[in-house]
Here is the input.
Amino acid sequence: MTNTFDHSESQRGCHVCAQSYPASKKIRLCIADFGIGILASLRKVPKYNNLRNDYEAIKLAVKEGITSRIGIDAGYGLSHIQRFIKVNQGKMYILSGKGKILWDYTGIKYKEKKQTMHNVFQGAIIDLEINAGREGLYFLQSDEGQIF
Amino acid sequence: MKIDIKGISKKRTVTRDEGERIQRILRKSWNKEQHFIVDFDNVLVASVSFLDEAFGKLALQYTKEDLQKKLKFENMVEYDRALLNDILYSRLRQRELGEDGPSLHKVVQKKSKTVSRNP
Here is the structure.
């Protein structure tokens, strides 16, 4: 949610919807803003202004250390969410402009799907499907061990 | 020196600005204090922005060993502890990569694909 205020330039903040599904032990969480979109936000940074489309921008935005804020070390929110979803064996969709990407960690094989939307959504939507079934699925794990 | 997160931040443990307040306190006394005891009093933070700004950015300047010597975290919920470790490793990786961070060229050249999940 802080991404909305830090990057989107949305005049109306963001909309958050959550729904619990006890039978399937899942939680859906969706955050939508009506700001400038991920592509426009990243293009403000000179080294990213050669991004060609929304798909490339979304893909880049989930990488560690990527931020639209010039001169500020940030860019860890989405990459941590992606790692959390991987540990949780859930799904994450990000939609912005005409681009939409799904990261699906629910099955035996990890799937990443790209989709081009017919209509433009100017802001950004992040939609998470979280497994609420087992406590162990909430904890990020590092191969490098624990520092603290 | 004890850093009482609940007392300093009240319930404002979400944004980067709120995390920066903690970072400033730590940096101000970093060389004077032998170590800091950071007490969360079991407050659930669950915010990458706050934890990164308060502690993660210290890893850009100090080594893992320096941080372990200087900081002790008490009454921290396990979820936040796991998140903090993940953030610190991200920052230590960034330190190794240098200020340019990940290469845009490498990122956008990767095609969408289906791969086996690591065990």
